[in-house]
Amino acid sequence: MLEQPYTVFDLPDQDADPVEEAGLILMGLDARRILAVLGTAVLTQQPGPAVLLVDKAWHQGAVRIPFDEAVNTGATHWREQRAALAQADDGVPRSGAPREAWARAHGTVVRALGEHMAPTVRACLAVAWFRREEFDEVTRGQ
């Protein structure tokens, strides 16, 4: 007899950290999409690029960031932060449990870079750190 698949969808706890919930969603995306999210977040967290994007929207009626440009910006940011993340890593083996893996990777990002950066940047870097071999491979040569 075939077992029925688990079909119940559980919502997160009402008090769950929204950055953690976003990070868990990001963990399911492919590396290039995460790098594009990271790149977009990096572009909008600094005043200069954010003002340029708004100016472009003002004059053209919309802001369009080419996907490859967002990926390249994210890849550059990943490479710039990679050494600091490696230095801050606690050396504990990575967990297969998503929430535990997220918490450890996010903790590494906070130890390395602090909490002053945009939550989206922290979330993307935490996922990239957890999957660092994949991100290193994807960003090689970019």
Describe this structure in words.
The chain has 142 residues and is mainly alpha-helical. It is 68% helix and 0% strand. It has seven helices and no strands. The chain has helices at residues 18-26, 31-45, 47-60, 67-88, 98-113, 119-130, 132-139. Helix 1 (18-26) packs across helix 6 (119-130), helix 2 (31-45) packs antiparallel against helix 6 and helix 4 (67-88) crosses helix 7 (132-139). The protein is globular. The N and C termini lie far apart (51 Å).
Uncertain residue segments = none
Structural class of the secondary structure composition? mainly alpha
Helix content: 55-70%
Give the assembly state of these chains: single chain
What composes the largest sheet?
none
Mean pLDDT: 88
What is the first-to-last residue Cα distance? 51 Å
Continuous helix count: 7
Shape: globular
H/E order of the elements?
Answer: HHHHHHH
Please tell me how large the radius of gyration is: 17 Å
What brief labels describe this structure?
142 residues; mainly alpha
Secondary structure topology:
Blueprint: H1 18-26, H2 31-45, H3 47-60, H4 67-88, H5 98-113, H6 119-130, H7 132-139
Helix pairs in contact: 1-6, 2-4, 2-6, 4-5, 4-7, 5-6, 6-7
Describe the structure concisely.
The chain has seven helices and no strands. The chain is mainly α and 142 residues long.
